[in-house]
Write a structure and sequence with these properties.
- The complex is a heterodimer.
- By secondary structure, chain A is α+β, with helices and mostly antiparallel strands.
- Chain A is about 55% helix and about 20% strand.
- Chain A has 16 helices and 15 strands.
- In chain A, strands 1, 3, 4, 5, 6, 7, 8, 9, 10, 12 and 13 form an eleven-stranded mixed sheet that branches. In chain A, strands 2-11 form a two-stranded antiparallel sheet. A two-stranded antiparallel ribbon of chain A has the order 14-15.
- In chain A, helix 1 crosses helix 13 and helix 2 runs antiparallel to helix 11.
- The longest helix of chain A is centred in the N-terminal third of the chain and has 41 residues.
- By secondary structure, chain B is an alpha/beta fold.
- In chain B, the strands form two sheets. In chain B, strands 6-7-8-3-9-10 form a six-stranded mixed sheet, sandwiched between helices. Chain B has a four-stranded antiparallel sheet with strand order 2-1-4-5, with helices on one face.
- The interface between A and B is medium-sized, with 25 and 27 residues.
Chain lengths: ~425, ~230
């Protein structure tokens, strides 16, 4: 091995306290950034999971023009929910589940109380098939905080948003008789107002930020109310993984043709994609600021080392060490520090993330009342990039003290005390 | 015929400190032949150290000519001077100046390992020189495990391993007791006699002056006595 490499390696052992302090700064810095990244990943993942597995599904299929007209006349944009169409969709590679939904609005009126007063509220509703939702959006059921979830597609039941229920004073009373049940009214596809008495069976937490005026009813009950037997406003699909969503959506577009709209979860909730990008940018700036402080600490320690070893540098110059070799000596020291620090930092970071993942962190997503148990994770390619960048930058900044060392005047360096 | 190892003509060295110009050397002429054992004397600030630094290629003359072992030194850049120091000059310092993280053997062989053309018999040569300077039992010791005299022996061995044209010794006995100083000086005298190593000393030690075959005296940047 070249003697300068031996000297560089041994110098790190020589001043153990300083080396440990420098390594400590790197280890703490890298492990904190990894923990923070893991935490952010968990927050984003919880938001995305809540949206995909509880609200939008991975892909949605609508009749062409649905997105444009959903606010004015959603019921006019329905699709015929036939076994043939379902089979055609389920035959597309990677599609693993399908759930039909009927999206509509209605008036919810509580049964009159002892004084004859009742509360009426306007709300958005989804008619769902609980069995199909279990496959495509399984989280929806898990957000039930009081009572039970919808039991079957053709029962006269309703599950209300918890906040909405609190506002209109609707109670979950499983023992209540039918005369105490509320009524749900809605205009059917022809504009006629229909009503259905429904039993409030459960309350849903706000797991996804959005309108709290929201309730679920069984699909067949909704179809009867709206006179829309055999129809749905959307199909929610589950595919084998998030990675194949885009390609599967393209395949579905080709298979179904122009009569249908196919949208991915990113298109349905663009705010999530934007939020992921924004958080990524914020994290990027935090990382730069954090690493700058750490790296300046390392540079300072290396300048101290140069100062303490000035006479040694003069001695090396006297026996013929060239300026480039002095630079090499200190850069190698910086590189070795960076490699050991990055390795230990990555190990420590993984350890912290493992602990957080193992025990979970209970937290609510912004705008939601539902507590998720977040489990931080890290993308190995991000960890590799993070570790490599730490090594690269620490090595690069060590060029500064290294250059200063190499520019020392040999006579002055030899006279240093 | 005696061979000039050093030939210095009209060498000056000026230092500029702000608006003040200091003439450290004011036209030095000097010739040293191979195998000489020379002492440079002079009071503090006389230019003695400056002359030695220029001879050792650690510093560059402002003007004049300096030929070392047939090569003109003036006008060379830092790396070229590094090469000259590595191949032609050995240094022995007052404070030994060993590299603390290297053991005796590594310290001695260090200058040779900086070269691209490494001597395949280097380890053998190092062991031989260790024996010659009395360090055979200490080759794996670190400098902080050695006495002052032993450290100076390592410095001597390091200075000689490259078979240099000259060895410059700056107050080599200043940090040693008198007995060790005598031993070190005797060692250098023997090396001078046996291997025709050219030694140039800067010292105030009368024991060194007693052993010197030539004495140069500098005052105010000029050679006062040269005999």
């Amino acid at each position: 091995m070249h003697p300068l490499l031996i000297i560089a390696a041994r110098n790190l052992r020589r001043n153990r306290k300083r080396t440990l302090l420098t390594l400590g700064a790197l280890v703490i810095g890298i492990s904190i950034m990894m923990s923070l990244r893991g935490f952010i990943n968990a927050v984003l993942s919880a938001q995305i999971d809540a949206a995909i597995y509880g609200y939008t599904g991975m892909i949605q299929i609508h009749k062409a023009g649905y997105s444009k007209n959903v606010l004015s006349s959603p019921l006019d944009q329905s699709i015929k929910d036939t076994p043939e169409l379902r089979a055609k969709i389920l035959a597309v590679p990677q599609v693993t589940g399908l759930a039909p939904r009927l999206q509509f609005t209605g008036l919810y009126s509580t049964a009159p109380d002892s004084q004859g007063n009742s509360e009426t509220s306007f709300m958005g509703l989804l008619g769902i098939d609980p069995a199909s939702e279990d496959v495509v959006a399984p989280n929806l059921k898990s957000w039930t905080t009081d009572g039970t979830f919808l039991s079957h597609s053709d029962r006269k039941e309703i599950v209300l948003n918890k906040d909405l229920a609190a506002i209109i004073g609707s109670k979950i009373n499983l023992a209540a008789t039918e005369d105490q049940w509320p009524v749900l009214m809605s205009s059917d596809v022809d504009g006629s107002l229909n009503g259905e008495i429904l039993k409030p069976v459960g309350l849903l937490a706000n797991a996804v930020p959005g309108d709290k005026r929201f309730a679920l009813v069984p699909l067949e009950t909704a179809r009867k109310l709206l006179r829309m037997e055999g129809l749905a406003t959307s199909y929610l699909l589950r595919v084998s993984s998030l990675a194949v969503v885009e390609t599967t959506a393209q395949n579905l577009k080709q298979t179904l043709g122009p009569e249908f709209e196919v949208q991915t979860w990113e298109e349905l909730i663009p705010v999530l994609k934007k939020m992921t990008a924004d958080i990524g940018r914020i994290f990027y700036f935090i990382s730069i600021a954090f690493y700058t402080v750490i790296i300046l600490g390392i540079v300072n320690a290396m300048f101290m080392s140069v100062l303490e070893r000035t006479r040694e540098i003069g001695t090396m110059m006297s026996v013929g060490v060239r300026r480039q070799q002095i630079v090499l000596l200190f850069v190698v020291e910086g590189f070795l520090l960076a490699v050991v620090g990055a390795f230990a930092g990555v190990l420590a970071g993984y350890f912290f993330v493992f602990l957080m993942h193992h025990f979970g962190i209970p937290i609510s997503a912004p705008g939601s009342t539902f507590k998720f148990l977040m489990r931080p994770t890290l993308d190995p390619s991000w960890v590799l990039a993070n570790g490599s960048i730490s090594i690269l930058f620490t090595s690069l900044v060590s060029l500064w003290p290294a250059y200063r060392a190499s520019r020392l005047d040999p006579v002055e360096a030899l006279q240093a005390t | 015929m005696t061979e000039n190892i050093i030939k210095i003509s009209g060498v000056t060295r000026q230092y500029i400190l702000g608006k003040t110009v200091i003439d450290a050397l004011r036209g030095i002429d000097l010739e040293i032949v191979k195998g000489e054992f020379t002492v440079v004397l002079g009071p503090s600030g006389s230019g003695k150290s400056t002359l030695l630094n220029i001879i050792g290629c650690l510093d560059r003359a402002t003007s004049g000519s300096y030929i070392l072992d047939g090569e003109e030194i003036a006008g060379r850049d830092f790396n070229s001077l590094s090469e000259i120091r590595n191949r032609k000059i050995g240094f022995i310092f007052q404070s030994f100046n060993l590299i603390p993280v290297l053991n005796v053997m590594e310290n001695i062989e260090f200058p040779c390992l900086l070269r691209k053309d490494r001597d395949p018999n280097l380890r053998e040569n190092v062991l031989k020189i260790c024996e010659e300077v009395g360090l055979s039992s200490f080759v794996h010791h670190k400098p902080d495990e050695l006495s002052g005299g032993q450290r100076q022996r390592v410095a001597i061995a390091r200075a000689l391993i490259t078979s240099p044209s000259i060895v410059l010794a700056d107050e080599p006995t200043a940090n040693l007791d008198s007995k060790t100083s005598d031993q070190i000086l005797d060692l250098m005298v023997n090396l001078n006699k046996n291997h025709q190593v050219t030694f140039i000393f800067a010292t105030h030690d009368p024991r060194v002056m007693d052993r010197a075959r030539r004495t140069l005296r500098i005052k105010d940047g000029k050679m006062e006595t040269n005999y």
